[in-house]
């Protein structure tokens, strides 16, 4: 490994690169705004050139040559295989389960992968903080074969139970998705700036399965709002390669 | 057939106090100029409808035009919060704001039902989420063939829908291309509609990916160059990303917002052309210079 | 990703006895060659689905491939009746044909529901007509918001849908323009899909009004020049109106129909290219000469 | 009037011309296959140049320079203001009541304007004659503001009661449409090769209001399968003008 004592990359870069690596070439990926879009575009420029990017603004197969500034950047339409209406993207493409991976961000995420982007505080009518709301996320989380979440981790964002379920993960445990008739597997992977989490196969509780190089399990625990379980097969994330870092930085600079 | 009007006349005739008003445009082609004209004409008690209430609705809400917001995602895309929206929800300033909250899929289908002359739409949506607990316009429906439970949402039929498009011809036929969002559905769902356009031309040259709204499906067309600024109009101008940053600094405080209202919206009143001949270009609809952005920080 | 196959291989792999099969194309781009290949491969007990069963289904029904037809308008457009269809319904020849009858609006919405992953669709349809008395797949549904009664129809999800398009690229992305009918919905509603195309090209040049089906939404693509004949392919060839007249004379009698089957369908078997390289052009897919039409009268 | 003893036009031509005249300039007309298409195209080339033709194949505002050979003739797409999908034409344009006139043909029509294009004979399972079926007609008849029917008249086609209601007219009389919640006014005009019929404002029964020039009321009665009522204000159709005939013949020849 070529990491010197002084790290040459930020934890946000590690997060984007780890998230990008999780996508496989040829997959169809419904891309959320922000961190997921960065990761998906990085994946397409590194190991997954045939990743199919679908944006809720109505683009199928966008191939932007720079990072889109928003979910509806003109570059997404100009480089798409097909541009369709917003109702069509949700009804014909997302809802029937044509998309492999839904790639989402979160303001708050709980130990069962439920996502909150609506309100902080228990009282919906008088919230402590009013967040943007649902957007496309509830149905992305419901209909994609799998959901990957990418989020900066802290005790505030990584909580025992979200204040508001904007997008259903595993509810309060294994089997709840099936009971509700949801077709997709829900969140199978969470990538943060500290590590990687996967639902326990028995309980669906998120378990730490990877720490990023240079991060300790204790650091992860301190940034987790519940009594974190650690996988017995805990591994360490491969640090960013020079090529990954270069590509990511070029993407963000453009 | 669509009438060609000035923006001022169009808003005066089509938008009334208490109306349900939808301004649509998904990142692309957001009808900002029309929104500011509604502020300028001091409309009140509007129920505002929009999938993505971003800056355009932060301005309308901050100016006190709205009593209710029906939406699915309210933020300043790529920047952060809408401070005027938050101030209204959290502190009822300048007036209380009722909210009715959906997901994008739900909102899109509500417009589809509205455009289709149906009272409701069916979707696989909201399952397991807390939205149905707080939003009475989300119900369950049973498939009469399979017995499956699905979500139902009522049609949206705004009193007036406003969109921005690249072009219209002199007969009022409208041409849009690039990301078309939910604009066709918003117009077809509404009782009345206004389309602001970059330019009115003699003939609409076909453009790949175009969507055409025939003149007879539109109430009024107004020529408003740069009418989507700070969002973009594919083929005309790029998104003014700096403005979205700049807005954060304006919207953050009541004082700076009110100063902006006075300087950039109300003071433009006198410049409005009366005959609809010379289109209005507001001072706010000029690309934010680096200097202005710096000053704002 | 769509596989590029010969028509013979594609039909062999995708269409099985007993399948529910939709061939769509609304006047334009009717996949006639694929229909004849299904006859040639002697498929049986198919449930055929099509809004407008015209000549293509008269041929399949007359050849005994179908046990059921789901449709909304069955005729020889501009000419008159489908004699093989009538012979099957009225006389069970060559085999009995069950029918399930809808309106165009109902069929279109059944495909929309299928493409949308919903079990049913809602429409204002069939009101006051005798269709619901005879078609069990038309039910009533109540709007959960207004209490209004509307019609519900179940989704169509064919085992395989087949359409014809102008072009595909080598990756299997499909490009269609002109009248696009219900083809996108038919493909998206189906478990498997086959698109026959006029030509496979290196690059799909954009065409105004185009519809693109990405390769990953299609199972197989087969290059079949003139595959829509006697219907038309905008940009390639015109409708062969003479053939529709000619078909009336062929279809009118069992003898002339069986002769046609033997001469124009089954005898082509040996000419099918094995490697998929040289596309099959059936003798039937040649514009009917004035002489042939005269002889037929 | 310039009609000589020997008529210079056929009764079919009179029917098409009378049907064309019924359309007003600027109206939006949903055009059925066959006779209605001929009449609508004739209207557009004579007194109603701004008639908006909508075809169920998905064309809005077609301006064909020859008679379309079918409902989906390429000329309709090539000359349209907009080409849309078949689901869209029914859902977004027909269903909400955006179309003024639905212009339909009929195999069988009864005295309350109900249309049959499905089966002849009382037994649907074992029909005497199997007709093409509904196509777009049931919803055209339901949703347009008004419906005009153009049909060749005979005792077989003009019946007391249709064998099968494919498209609902006035049912068994006045008020039935309202009871069923239908928004459009239904058939307000029927044009045949012999005359013109309108529903009685009290009963909704079709009444003869015009006979074509040279046709007697007795001839009309003989071609009607019910005890025909004749309007007290019966008028005679203006014979075709030379311009109308010339335009119609050019259209049909092209």
What does this structure look like?
The complex is a heterotetramer, with two copies of chain A (254 residues) and two copies of chain B (297 residues). Chain A is of the alpha/beta class and 254 residues long. Chain A is 26% helix and 23% strand. Chain A has helices at 11-21, 35-45, 74-78, 86-94, 137-143, 176-179, 217-222, 242-253; strands at 28-31, 52-55, 59-60, 82-83, 101-104, 108-110, 115-116, 119-120, 129-130, 146-150, 158-159, 187-191, 195-199, 206-212, 229-237. The mean pLDDT of chain A is 95. Chain B is α/β, with parallel strands linked by helices and 297 residues long. Chain B has helices spanning 7-14, 32-40, 55-62, 83-91, 104-115, 131-134, 183-189, 241-251, 254-265, 290-296; strands at 3-4, 20-23, 46-50, 66-71, 98-101, 120-123, 139-142, 149-154, 160-169, 174-176, 192-201, 211-213, 220-223. In chain B, strands 1, 2, 3, 4, 5, 9, 10, 11, 12 and 13 form a ten-stranded mixed β-sheet that branches. A three-stranded antiparallel β-sheet of chain B has the order 6-8-7, with helices on one face. In chain B, helix 8 (241-251) runs parallel beside helix 10. The radius of gyration of chain B is 19 Å and the shape is globular. Classes of the chains: A alpha/beta (254), B alpha/beta (297). Chains in contact: A-B, A-C, B-C, B-D, C-D. Chain A binds chain C through residues 26, 28, 52, 60-61, 81-82, 91-92, 95-98, 143, and chain C through 1, 115-118, 173, 184-185, 188, 211-214, 216-217.
Number of helices of chain B: 10
Query: How many DSSP helices of chain A?
Result: 8
Oligomer: heterotetramer
Return Rg of chain B in Å: 19 Å
Catalogue the unreliable spans of chain A.
none
* Low-confidence runs of at least 5 consecutive residues of chain B: 270-281, 289-293
Q: What is the averaged pLDDT score of chain A?
A: 95
């Amino acid at each position: 490994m070529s990491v010197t004592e002084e790290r040459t990359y930020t934890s946000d870069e590690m997060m984007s690169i780890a998230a990008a690596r999780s996508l496989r070439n040829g997959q169809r990926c419904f891309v959320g705004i922000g961190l997921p879009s960065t990761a998906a575009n990085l994946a397409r420029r590194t190991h997954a050139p045939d990743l199919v990017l679908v944006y809720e603004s109505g683009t199928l197969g966008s191939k932007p040559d720079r990072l889109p500034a928003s979910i509806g950047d003109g570059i997404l339409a100009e480089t798409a295989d097909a541009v369709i209406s917003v109702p069509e993207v949700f009804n014909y493409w997302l809802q029937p389960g044509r998309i492999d991976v839904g790639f989402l961000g979160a303001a708050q995420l709980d130990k069962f992968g439920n996502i909150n982007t609506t309100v902080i505080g228990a009282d919906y009518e008088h919230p402590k903080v009013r967040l943007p709301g649902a957007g496309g996320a509830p149905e992305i989380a419901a209909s994609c074969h799998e959901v990957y979440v990418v989020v900066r981790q802290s005790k505030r964002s990584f909580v025992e139970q979200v204040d508001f379920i904007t997008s259903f993960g595993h509810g309060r445990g294994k089997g709840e998705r099936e009971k509700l008739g949801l077709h997709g597997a829900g969140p199978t992977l969470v990538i943060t700036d500290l590590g990687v989490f996967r639902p326990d196969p028995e309980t669906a509780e998120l378990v730490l399965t990877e720490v990023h190089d240079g991060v300790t399990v204790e650091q992860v625990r301190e940034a987790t709002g519940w009594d974190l379980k650690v996988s017995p097969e805990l591994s360490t994330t491969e640090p960013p390669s020079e090529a990954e870092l270069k590509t990511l930085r070029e993407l963000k600079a453009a | 057939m669509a009438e060609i009007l000035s923006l001022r006349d169009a808003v005066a005739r089509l938008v009334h106090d208490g109306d349900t008003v939808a301004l649509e445009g998904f990142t692309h082609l957001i009808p900002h100029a029309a929104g500011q004209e509604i502020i300028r004409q001091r409309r009140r008690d509007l129920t505002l409808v929009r999938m993505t209430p971003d800056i355009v609705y932060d301005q309308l809400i901050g100016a006190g035009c709205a009593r209710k917001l029906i939406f699915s995602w309210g933020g300043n895309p790529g920047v952060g919060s809408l401070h005027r929206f938050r101030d209204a929800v959290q502190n009822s300033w300048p007036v209380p704001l009722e909210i009715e909250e959906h997901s994008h899929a739900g909102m899109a289908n509500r417009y589809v039902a509205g455009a289709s002359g149906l009272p409701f739409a069916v979707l696989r949506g909201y399952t397991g989420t807390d939205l149905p607990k707080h939003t009475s316009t989300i119900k369950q429906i049973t498939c009469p063939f399979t017995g499956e439970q699905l979500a139902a949402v009522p049609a949206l039929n705004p009193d007036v829908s406003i969109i921005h498009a690249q072009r219209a011809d002199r007969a009022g036929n409208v041409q849009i291309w690039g990301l078309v969002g939910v604009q066709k559905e918003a117009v077809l769902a509404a009782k009345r509609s206004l389309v602001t356009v970059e330019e009115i031309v003699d003939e609409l040259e076909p453009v790949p990916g175009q969507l055409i709204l025939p003149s007879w499906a539109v109430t009024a067309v107004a020529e408003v160059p740069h009418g989507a600024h700070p969002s973009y109009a594919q083929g005309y101008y790029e998104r003014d990303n700096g403005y979205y940053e700049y807005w954060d600094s304006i919207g953050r405080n009541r004082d700076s917002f009110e100063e902006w209202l006075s300087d950039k919206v109300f003071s433009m009143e006198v410049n409005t052309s009366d005959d609809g001949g010379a289109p209005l270009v507001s001072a706010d609809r000029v690309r934010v210079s680096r200097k202005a952005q710096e000053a704002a920080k």
